[in-house]
Amino acid sequence: MRQSYRIIVIDDDPITRMDLVEMLQEVGYDVVAEGKNGEEAVRLTQTWRPHLVIMDVKMPVMDGLAATGIIRSTSDTDVLLLTAYSQKDMVARAKAKGVCGYLVKPVMEEELLPAVERVLASRLR
């Protein structure tokens, strides 16, 4: 049995969200909440105090980078960003906000699960 980690998935695309949740739950992760924008990510993080938020960058209301800045300044929750962009400037901005990593969409299970494992394993150090 996997150690119990609370994970929140945030993406404005419901199909992407559903796929991510399914991949995580199939291997035993506890996805405690889902949301569709950065504002919801901030609120859900305050409510659930997850170990990890997996979040899209480009979303309505509040983007993932702005939400990451708030989450990282108010909690020790790790953030793994999902993006359709792999430009160096976006990566630099994401690092400055305190993200633990990022994955380029579309995200496949063989990329997602190792990335999640790395982030959560770093919490044990």
Description of the structure:
With 125 residues, the protein is an alpha/beta fold. It has one domain (6-120): Rossmann fold (3-Layer(aba) Sandwich), CATH 3.40.50. It has helices at 14-26, 38-48, 64-74, 88-97, 109-122; strands at 6-10, 30-35, 52-56, 78-83, 101-104. Strands 2-1-3-4-5 form a 5-stranded parallel β-sheet, with helices on both faces. Strand 3, helix 3 (64-74) and strand 4 form a beta-alpha-beta unit. Helix 2 packs parallel to helix 3. The longest helix has 14 residues, at 109-122. The two termini are 20 Å apart. The model has no long low-confidence stretch (mean pLDDT 90).
What is the rounded Rg? 13 Å
By DSSP (H or I, 4+ residues per run), the number of helices equals 5
Overall shape: globular
Order of helices and strands: EHEHEHEHEH
Helix content: 40-55%
Considering the protein shown, what is the CATH homologous superfamily?
Answer: Response regulator
Please identify the structural class as seen in this structure.
alpha/beta
What is the count of β-strands?
5
CA distance, first residue to last residue:
20 Å
Short structural summary:
With 125 residues, this protein is an alpha/beta fold. The chain contains 5 helices and 5 strands, in the order βαβαβαβαβα.
